[in-house]
């Protein structure tokens, strides 16, 4: 397809139509019949519907084929619709939620999650996925932390890159490959007070040094699209923000792909108070560099006027439309508008057994063992199962549109399938419903497993919580269970770090998040010892809500609190420590790993040299297991205050029983810099602290000097 020639033949209205994306209810069934019913809220007539360039969401191959067929019959230039959807952690084979995926610390595993997701989604004719979500998060009250990779800039890069590579697989024209749309640009995760869609306010320095890393990594990995966030940056809505969409995206990162708004976020510029009406929003959007408008009609209803009035707007319009048409060409849609959609393939690829088996492996590596007082694993024990997740199948979590929880096993079913002896099951979370008989049965168990947590609807978009203890008073169930005298294992199903101070009477605590289609099979394999847990936290667990935001890579302040030193006038609370309950990078294993003998190949390095850090990891236990060894650095003195520690690398290593592995990290110049307000890398000589450890609050350190000659 000759895009330049096609552009010459398109009318202004046809060009603008390519920037319109409509929600699924415009296309799911017969277009004519649906148009009258659903379009009235968007004041769209049928002619404009058939100018649309892309569709948000589609159910199956048959629907996609019928929509595309009906659409192309009316399209003057036969420009195919591009189908996009939220394939965030799986299509019908549902993998653990992204926050859980990040706890695997396993880049190639997450790349394969995206690969399988793309293969399954493509059978429905989906061409673009609105993933990875690369919003760095620091506030567990925000419902969407469940979709994130946690609080660390380095991990954002690693996992955003892995997902883009998995979805696109270096060639989006191929069947089974989808284009990645990284989101939400930018810093949506900093929504004030964790309240969704709330104001975001941060310095350019923090934006550049902490919050842009994941989006940038996705772009550098070749992501074809980026979605703007609902929030403001510097007071300007991200959807019409020239600094983000032109200065950072085009000039600083040389991105030549497509930008898309979030759902209705161009129209919402009016609510932000930055446009009088849709007509003004349309002008601000195209001037800022917004290409596709999702699920609102500012462009389709008003851009023509602006083009007629100002020739520069036509230039901007042409640039936007060309980017969209080039993406459609790169996807191979002009050659095959039905690319990927295949009713037969759908039946044999989607939820294929090898996909489900892999989903179980991923779930096993995403579970984090938070506490274990000689209780787990529970092998050959009589088990009593209590709490809502004893019998619930709801392990898919938010943003699992095409997944079906009914296909999942409950924890009870998974235990039974694994051959465990379950002597009692009660899904009630209310101790008052447990009578004498219940207590008698519970007392006969060797161990009580309390399966509790949040519902799917308490996590995800528009589901922020101001208090983040276990909901519905489930803490009382655990307290009650402990009064019966047995060991109590608390298994958590949730989409955010919770306040767990009041369930510390549990003998063991297992954080499983929402683990997807095969979650409970994975959880049972861990609880019974068949699998050694290895997940580590990528988001700090606060002791109480008052500590939020709490994150490991904080600045030192001018009055740091030094644990153990009694000084009143320092940065601390009267009523709680500064430390998290469970820190970034924390997670237990059934093995015991000792870190010893840290040494450096040198204690000074120039810009062209490297230092190799080595450390011995000893597995003192009788079973092999994965250990995630973390490398942190601190820049003691710089032009801006630098964090007390920053993750700069990690290695996930299997260490056999009773054996030692020597792990090495090469320290290179690129690990030592920081960014100025314009995103330029700054390298200053001086002393650095190198730390290696099992989590952010358990490190061994040594200093070295970086010399600029
Ligand atoms: C939603 C979300 C975004 C999603 C989009 C399309 O509002 O903010 O993450 O991709 O709409 O469903």
Task: Output the keywords.
709 residues, 20 helices, six-stranded mixed β-sheet, eight-stranded parallel β-sheet, alpha/beta, single chain, globular
SSE layout and pairing:
Layout (H helix, E strand, L loop, with lengths): L2 H7 L2 H6 L2 E3 L8 H9 L6 H4 L4 E3 L4 H14 L7 E4 L12 H5 L4 H16 L5 E2 L23 H16 L10 E7 L18 H8 L1 H8 L4 E4 L3 E2 L2 E2 L4 H11 L5 E3 L17 H11 L4 E2 L3 H12 L1 H20 L12 H7 L3 H14 L1 E5 L9 E5 L24 H7 L3 E6 L9 H8 L3 E7 L20 H9 L4 E7 L14 E4 L7 H9 L65 E8 L3 E3 L4 E9 L5 E11 L10 E10 L3 E9 L6 E2 L5 E2 L3 E10 L2 E10 L2
Parallel strand pairs: 1-2, 1-10, 2-3, 3-4, 4-5, 5-6, 6-9, 12-13, 12-14, 14-15, 15-16, 18-26
Antiparallel strand pairs: 7-8, 11-16, 17-19, 19-22, 20-21, 20-25, 23-24, 25-26
Alpha-D-glucopyranose binds next to loops.
- What ligands are attached or bound here? alpha-D-glucopyranose
For the biggest sheet, the summary is: 8 strands, parallel
Number of helices: 20
Order of strands, widest sheet: 9-6-5-4-3-2-1-10
User: What share of the residues does DSSP label as strand, in percent?
Assistant: 15-25%
> End-to-end span in angstroms?
54 Å
* Spans of at least 5 consecutive residues with low confidence: 31-40
Share of helix among residues?
25-40%
What is the C-alpha radius of gyration, as a whole number of Å?
26 Å
What is the 3D form? globular
Number of strands: 26
Structural class: alpha/beta
Q: Overall mean pLDDT score?
A: 96
Can you describe what's shown?
- With 709 residues, the protein is α/β, with parallel strands linked by helices.
- It contains 20 helices and 26 strands.
- It has an 8-stranded parallel sheet. Strands 11-16-15-14-12-13 form a 6-stranded mixed sheet, with helices on both faces. Strands 18-26-25-20-21 form a 5-stranded mixed sheet.
- β25 and β26 form a beta hairpin.
- α7 (107-122) runs antiparallel to α16, α8 packs parallel to α10 (213-220) and α13 crosses α14.
- The radius of gyration is 26 Å and the shape is globular.
- The relative contact order is 0.11.
- The model is unreliable at 31-40 (pLDDT under 50).
């Amino acid at each position: 397809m000759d895009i330049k020639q096609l552009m010459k033949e398109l009318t202004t209205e046809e060009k603008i139509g390519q920037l319109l994306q409509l929600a699924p209810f415009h296309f799911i069934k017969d277009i004519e019949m649906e148009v009258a019913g659903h379009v009235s809220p968007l004041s769209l007539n049928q002619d404009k519907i058939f100018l649309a360039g892309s569709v948000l969401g589609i159910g199956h191959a048959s629907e996609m084929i019928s929509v595309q067929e009906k659409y192309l019959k009316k399209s003057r230039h036969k420009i195919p619709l591009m189908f996009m959807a939220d394939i965030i952690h799986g299509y019908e084979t549902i993998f653990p939620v992204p926050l859980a995926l990040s706890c695997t610390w396993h880049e190639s595993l997450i790349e394969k999650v995206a690969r399988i997701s793309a293969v399954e989604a493509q059978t429905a004719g989906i061409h673009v996925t609105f993933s990875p979500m690369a919003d760095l998060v620091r506030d567990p009250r925000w419902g969407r932390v469940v979709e994130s990779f946690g609080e660390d800039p380095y991990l954002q890069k690693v996992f955003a890159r892995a997902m883009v590579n998995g979805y696109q697989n270096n060639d989006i024209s191929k069947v089974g490959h989808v284009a990645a749309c990284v989101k939400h640009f930018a810093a949506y995760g900093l929504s004030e007070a964790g309240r969704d869609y709330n104001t975001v306010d941060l310095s350019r320095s923090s934006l550049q040094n902490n919050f842009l890393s994941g989006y940038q990594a996705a772009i550098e990995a070749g992501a074809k699209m980026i979605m703007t966030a609902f929030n403001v940056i510097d007071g300007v809505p991200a959807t019409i923000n020239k600094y983000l969409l032109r200065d950072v995206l085009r000039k600083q990162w040389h991105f030549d792909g497509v930008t898309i708004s979030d759902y209705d976020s161009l129209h919402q510029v009016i609510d932000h108070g930055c446009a009088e009406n849709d007509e003004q929003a349309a002008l601000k959007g195209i001037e800022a560099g917004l290409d596709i408008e999702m699920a609102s009609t500012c462009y389709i209803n008003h851009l023509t006027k602006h083009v007629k009035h100002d020739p520069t707007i036509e230039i901007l319009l042409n640039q936007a439309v060309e980017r969209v048409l080039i993406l459609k060409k790169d996807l191979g849609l002009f050659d095959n508008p039905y690319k990927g959609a295949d009713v037969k393939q759908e039946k044999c690829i989607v939820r294929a057994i090898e996909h489900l088996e892999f989903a179980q492996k991923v779930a096993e590596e995403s579970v984090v063992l938070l506490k274990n007082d000689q209780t787990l694993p529970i092998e050959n024990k009589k088990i009593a199962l209590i709490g809502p997740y004893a019998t619930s199948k709801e392990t898919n979590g938010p943003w699992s549109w095409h997944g079906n929880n009914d296909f999942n096993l409950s924890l009870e079913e998974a235990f039974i399938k694994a051959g465990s002896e379950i002597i009692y099951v009660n899904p009630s979370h209310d101790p008052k419903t447990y009578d004498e008989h219940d207590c008698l049965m519970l007392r006969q168990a060797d161990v009580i497993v309390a399966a509790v947590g949040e519902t799917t609807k308490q996590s995800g978009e528009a589901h922020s919580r101001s208090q983040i203890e276990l909901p519905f008073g489930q803490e009382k169930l655990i307290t009650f269970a402990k009064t019966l005298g047995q060991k109590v294992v608390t298994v958590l199903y949730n989409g955010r770090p919770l306040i767990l101070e009041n369930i510390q009477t549990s003998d063991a605590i297992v954080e499983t998040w929402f683990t997807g289609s095969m979650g409970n099979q994975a959880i049972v394999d861990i609880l019974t010892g068949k699998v050694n847990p290895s997940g580590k936290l990528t988001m700090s667990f606060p002791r109480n809500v008052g500590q939020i935001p709490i994150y490991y890579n904080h600045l030192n302040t001018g009055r740091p609190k030094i644990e153990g030193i009694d000084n009143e006038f320092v940065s601390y609370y009267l009523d709680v420590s500064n430390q998290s309950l469970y820190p970034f990078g924390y997670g237990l294993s059934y093995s015991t790993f000792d870190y010893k003998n840290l040494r450096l190949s040198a204690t000074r390095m120039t810009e062209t040299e490297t230092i190799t850090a080595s450390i011995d990891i000893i597995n003192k236990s009788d079973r092999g297991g994965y250990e995630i060894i973390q490398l942190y650095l601190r820049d003691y003195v710089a032009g801006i205050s630098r964090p007390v520690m920053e993750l700069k690398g990690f290695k996930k290593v299997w260490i056999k029983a009773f054996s030692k592995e020597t792990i090495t990290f090469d320290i290179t110049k690129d690990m030592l810099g920081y960014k100025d307000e314009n995103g330029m890398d700054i390298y200053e000589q001086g002393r650095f602290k190198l730390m290696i450890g099992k989590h952010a609050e358990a490190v061994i350190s040594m200093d070295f000097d970086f010399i600029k000659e």
